[in-house]
Amino acid sequence: MTVWIPGRLVQAGCAVIAMTLIVFASLHLIGNPIDLLLPPDADAAERARMIAAFGLDRPLALQYLAFVERVLHGDFGLSFVYGTPAVALVLSRLPATLELAVLATALSIGLGIPLGLAAALRQSSPVGQALTGLSTLSYSLPAFWTGLLLILVFSVVLGWLPSTGRGQTVAMAGGEWSFVTLDGLRHLCLPVLNLAVFKTALILRLTKSGAQGTLVADHIRFARARGLTTWRIVFVHILRTILVPIIAVLGVEFGATVAFSVVTESIFAWPGMGSLFVESLHTLDRPVIVVYLATVVLIFIVSNMAADVLVRLADPRIRTGPL
Amino acid sequence: MDRRQILALLAGLAPIPLTSAARAAGDGARELRLGVVTAPNSLDPHFYQSPTNNQTLKQIFDPLVVENLEGRIRPWLAETWRPIDDVTWEFKLRPGIRFHDGTPLEPEDVAFSIARIPAVPNSPGSFIPFVRNIADVIVVDRTTFRFRSKTPNPFLDRDFTSVLILSRKIHANAATADFTSGRYAIGTGAFRYAGFTVGQQLDLVRNPDFWGAPTPWSRVRARFIADPGSRVAGLLAGDLDLIDAVPIQDVAHLAAGPGTAVFSAASATTAYLFPDSTRDQSPFVTDRQGAPLPRNPFRDPRVRRALSLAINRAGIVNQLLAGQGIPADQFAPPPAADRLPGRPPLPYDPAGAKRLLAEAGYPEGFGLTIHGPSGFFAGDSAVLQAIAQGLSRVGIETRVDTLPPATFFGRATNRDFSLFLTTYAATSSVDFLRQVVLTKDPDRGTGPFNRQLYSNPRLDENGLAALTEMEPSRRLSLTHAALTELESDLGIVPVFYPRFNWAGRRSHVTFEPGNPFGHTNALFAKPV
After folding, report:
1. Residue B145 to residues B75, B83, B434, B457: CA-CA distances in angstroms?
2. Which residues, other chains included, contact A285 with Cβ-Cβ below 8 Å and sequence gap of 6+?
3. Residue B26 confidence (pLDDT) above 60
4. ipTM passes above 0.90
5. Which of A220, A275, B218, B289: CA 20 to 30 A from A16?
6. Where in chain B is the domain with CATH 3.10.105.10?
7. Which residues on neighbouring strands pair with residue B191, listed in sequence order?
8. Torsion angle (degrees, nearest 10) of CA B374, B380, B381, B386
């Protein structure tokens, strides 16, 4: 295990470098931020000042080399729009996105695994059928639609929960967190639910199909024959067997949740990295786009690594390998 | 968790009826909760010249003078002002104005503010153009000062509607970040800073020592909600009292709803078509079979006139925009100063358009692709489609290509298009001329948004003279001469003037915007 972690880090570095090249080239093709930011009262001198201030007066290759040089000194540049360091800007939005993604993942595990087991054990009963149908439905609903529906039902009609925004935050561990306050939790309910809908359906289906396959496996039949309780069979023998693919998928999915929280953050006016990213795309704020994507790449790689470690812990066969 | 916490949890989850949001507040404690589409990028009033920053910061800080809804300049921090010679303007401040911390406002603070603007680093769009021409600020007495400009500028007072005044004593060493953190967000305005989270929300409280009539709102919370559906839902859920940029499809039901009302106002914005009328060949005009045309039809004023006659402006405004606009009669919209008087809406006459095209040598019409932004202003893609249908009806076989603003504006500036739709906003006809239609000339500072490089010597002559003519009646006749030339030459083709709108809780708030920029500003909101 000690050997493959540095290997992964080298991979991560390569992925980030490739990503920055793609971002520089593609944003250059899309357009320039000057035409998007320039005030209507601006004159030619002001336009020239902005182009020079953003370093856009130089050829793209030189702009990229200057960027690489600065990055090697730990400087990812200033946001064109905010005029503040892009890294600090993205990191200040990271806690909001992380608490959303972590809680949504936890909720989807907490709901998806028990419901998936129930669907597998009762596959021909109305409950099992209903669960399978529901998971297909929630798998195919677009997030912006479910988001507005949740707001409509829980905020507009029932008036139980706030429609948008983030609640009261508390400064902890270098960031502002809202899951520790009551107001924060109330504001978290709907966006977390919205983000968890798709993932819950995914985990439910993984659990169900895994459990269905395992139910007829030999070790389960022997366990039954030995007279073990259903409880023990399901939660020890079946669950342990099906956990490995679920963990592997969750590793990929966590990164995807962070990346795809963009839609949920926009609908719920959630001040996370995702809404900052959307805003930065609209203004072609290259330094922020680069830092956001680098952060997402890193989260993808770290969560995959974490999943690999967990899979190795859960399944001793992988640790030894085919040696 | 003890019992109190459990009770609090239950109370937190209990339904909130729509009316309780008024919080049974007495007259002393009125709260206003705004849902605003765009978020300011800073609280430094000299950092970024944008409608979003200006609407936000004009609640905390003040300019010397303001524009009203008719585009006239009104007193604000300055009580009176007048030009005393071609390059000197005298302003008198209202006496006794103080910043939120008690520091008095003095003429030296105006000089300080002007000097600070070019020194603010990393601005994505600076206020420099407003102060570049100021050579000197001379303090006459404790309330009087004079601006000396490098060249005559008859619009100097208008430039100072956008420059917010800081204190040389408070803000001498204030960096942009110190404003955003709240530390130096100390102005003379009707509201005081009470908290700001970038991209999320701004909290303000009433300034009890405001120099004008104190605001009726004791607290204002502006939340930044980009998604239109979420803003409307927030209003309907009772989480918000007032929202801006109401989606066109929601205007009718929010206006008719029992608990909501819609407020709308003229804007200083014009949506216009910009034809490529200078190049011999243009990239997106073809014959009807799609082969490139040897000459550019838009060079002929008759073709540009036909273009204008083919647009059903009343239909666009009434049917596509649900009445949220006014058909255009000239380039500058009604709130702008010095418009041509008594002009009827530009005519819709497809038969006349066909005749003009035939006269110009295009009896069969030609092929065209028109471009426009999508998601830049309300209804933009639909308006472009309607214009294309109108053109196709008179024989100009038109295809539509809408682009995201991020791509569109850069390409428009590169002269990639033959005809495109966009908007411009200003409160004076001369600004429309100087920024969009006068010949692009970096040395003179004219035509920075003249993206098609339109050039008309007669228009330039009168327009340039108007820019520096200090005598009001001569300036007006020069302006009108330039506008009349534009009207007959149609270097740009005006389409309509969009309206801004807001929606609010009927029982709680009414909204009367004080300027034509669509500013969502708590000063314009009144409690019911």
Report:
1. 15, 12, 28, 39
2. A33, A79, A80, A81, A82, A86, A279
3. no
4. no
5. A275
6. 269-499
7. B206
8. -160
Taking the C-alpha atoms of residue A87 and residue B432, their distance in angstroms, rounded to an integer, is: 39
DSSP line for B231-264: HHHHHHTTS-SEEES--HHHHHHHHHSSSEEEEE
Distance, first Cα to last Cα, chain A: 15
Nearest alpha-carbon partner for A76 in A279, A260, A289: A289
φ, ψ dihedrals at B317, nearest 5°: -70, -45
* Per-residue pLDDT tens digits for B286-334: 998 889 898 999 999 999 999 999 999 999 999 999 888 999 999 999 9
Distant-in-sequence, close-in-space partners of A30: CB < 8 Å, separation ≥ 6: A284, B406, B407, B410
Chain A residue numbers with beta carbons less than 8 Å from the beta carbon of B12 are: 182-183, 186
Distance between A315 CA and the closest CA of chain B, angstroms:
38
What are the backbone dihedrals phi and psi of residue B436, each rounded to the nearest 5 degrees, phi first? Answer: -115, -40
Question: What domains lie within chain A, and their CATH numbers?
Answer: 4-72 (no CATH), 92-320 (1.10.3720.10)
B435–A contact, CB cutoff 8 A = yes
> B50-74 pLDDT, tens per residue?
999 999 999 999 999 999 888 889 9
Residue that is written with structure tokens 């946001």 in the block: A79
B118 has pLDDT over 90: yes
Residue pair A264/A143 in contact (Cβ under 8 Å)? The answer is yes
Determine whether the interchain pair B442/A83 forms a contact, defined as Cβ–Cβ distance below 8 Å: no
Q: A27 and A289 in contact (C-beta within 8 Å)?
A: yes
DSSP state of B68: -
Question: Mean pLDDT per 10-residue run, chain A (323 residues)?
Answer: 69 85 89 88 89 90 91 90 93 93 93 88 82 82 86 90 90 86 92 91 89 82 82 81 86 85 91 92 92 90 85 72 52
Residues 384-423 of B with CB under 8 A from A: 405-413
* Amino acid, single-letter form, for residue B106: E
Contact A182 B12 (CB under 8 A): yes
Residue B460: phi, psi to the nearest 5?
-60, -45
CATH number (3.40.50.620, 3.10.105.10, 2.120.10.30, 3.40.250.10) of B269-499 reads 3.10.105.10
Contact between residue B431 and residue A42 where contact means Cβ atoms under 8 Å apart: no
Neighbouring residues of A293: CB distance < 8 A, sequence distance ≥ 6: A19, A23
Distance, CA of B83 to chain centre: 27
Total H helices, total E strands in chain A:
14, 2
The amino acid sitting at B161 is: T
Q: What is the DSSP letter of A85?
A: B
Q: Please report residues of A whose CB lies closer than 8 A to that of B50.
A: 37, 39
Tokens 């006809």 found at: B429
- Residue B454 token pair: 């339109």
A26 close to B (CB below 8 A):
no
Taking the alpha carbons at both ends of chain B, their separation in whole angstroms is 42
Q: Is a pLDDT exceeding 60 seen at residue B164? A: yes
What angle in degrees, to the nearest 10, is found between the helix axes of A4-30 and A286-314? 150
Does B451 have pLDDT greater than 70? yes
C-beta separation of B331 from B480 below 8 A: no
Tokens for A123, please give them. 């596959």
B20-259+506-527 domain in CATH 3.30.430.20?
A: no
| Chain A residues touching B406 at Cβ < 8 A | 30-31, 36, 281-284
Amino acid code (one letter) for B204: L
Report the distance separating Cα B35 and Cα B432, nearest Å: 31
DSSP code at position B118: G
> Which residues are bridge partners to B144 per DSSP?
B92
Does B125 contact chain A (CB < 8 Å)? Answer: yes
- B528: tokens are 């019911």
